[in-house]
Amino acid sequence: MMTNNVTLAEGGRLDRFGIIASCVCAVHCAVMPALVGLLPLLGLGVIADERVEWTLVAVAALVGMASLLPTYFRHHGRATPLLIFAAGLTLIFVGKTLFEERATLEAASVVAGALTVAIAHFVNRRLCRACCTIPVVE
């Protein structure tokens, strides 16, 4: 019989992927305003497409929920990562919707939100490591 460590390992992978995806999103949003004019010349205009940005947001949200919710309910029971995650997503959505016409504010809000989502995954990993040291029983 397996204990919860298998689930924790899967959650740890999701947290690592969430951190990476959130950081990629932050870099994308920070660099895009400066590169928008150059990308079509390089054949990379698709990277600046609005659909790519919303896809990155959706991936971050889905990975976050898939990682943070199970570890909250099954393991550490601390709401801190979920609250940090919600704050990050809120910053992203505010930036993408309310500041759409103001590129500097949009970029700042979305980058801050993406980094906040990455921090939520980092905090979740720390909480899981601190409380869940049950050995795997085969």
Tell me how many strands there are. Answer: 0
**Number of domains as seen in the coordinates:** 1
Strand content: under 5%
Put simply, the count of helices is 5
Radius of gyration: 17 Å
Distance between the termini: 5 Å
Shape: elongated
* SSE string, helices as H and strands as E: HHHHH
Question: How much helical structure, as a percent, in the residues?
Answer: over 70%
Q: Strand count, sense and closure of the main sheet?
A: none
Overall mean pLDDT score?
Answer: 76
Unreliable runs: 1-9, 134-138
Describe this structure in words.
Helix content is 79%, strand content 0%. With 138 residues, it is mainly alpha-helical. The chain has one domain. Helix 1 packs antiparallel against helix 3 (50-76), helix 3 (50-76) packs antiparallel against helix 4 and helix 4 (80-97) runs antiparallel to helix 5. It is elongated, with a radius of gyration of 17 Å. The protein starts with a helix and ends in a 7-residue tail after the last helix.
Q: Which key phrases capture this entry?
A:
138 residues, mainly alpha, 79% helix, elongated
Quick recap of the structure?
The chain is mostly helical and 138 residues long. It contains 5 helices and no strands. Helix 1 (5-35) packs antiparallel against helix 3 (50-76).
Write the layout of secondary structure elements.
Layout: H1 5-35, H2 39-42, H3 50-76, H4 80-97, H5 103-131
Helix pairs in contact: 1-3, 1-5, 3-4, 3-5, 4-5
